[in-house]
Amino acid sequence: MPNMLAMSFEGELAPSFTLHCLDAGRTLPDGWGLGYYPAGEPSAAILKEPAPPQSSMRSQLALAWEQVASSLFVLHIRHATWGALSDANTQPFSRTWGRRDWLMAHAGSLDRKPPDVLGPFEPVGATDTEQLFCQLLNQFALRKWRSIAEIDLDVLQGWISELNEIGGMTLCLTDGRDLLAHADRRGVPMWIAQLAPPYERIAFGDQDIDVDLTRRGAKSRKGIIVCTEQLVPLDGDAGKAMTWRQLAPGQLLVIREGAVIAERSTGGALVTERLQRLPSRAEPRRYDVVHKTTYRYEVPIERSQHILRLTPVHDRLQTLVSHDLRVSVQCQSRDYEDVFGNRVRKVNIETGFTEMVIEARSTVDVQDVDPLGFGPLRIQSTIPLVWMPWQRQVLDPFLLPPELPETELAELIEYAMSFVKRNDSDLLDTLLDINQSIHREYAYIQGATTVFTTAFEVYSNRRGVCQDFTNLFICLARLLGVPARYVCGYVYTGPKSANQAQSEASHAWVQLYLPQIGWKGFDPTNGILTQTEHVRVAVGRNYLDATPTSGTIFVGGGGETLSVDVKVEPRPGPNGS
Question: Cβ atoms within 10 A of the Cβ of 95, count?
Answer without folding.
Answer: 19
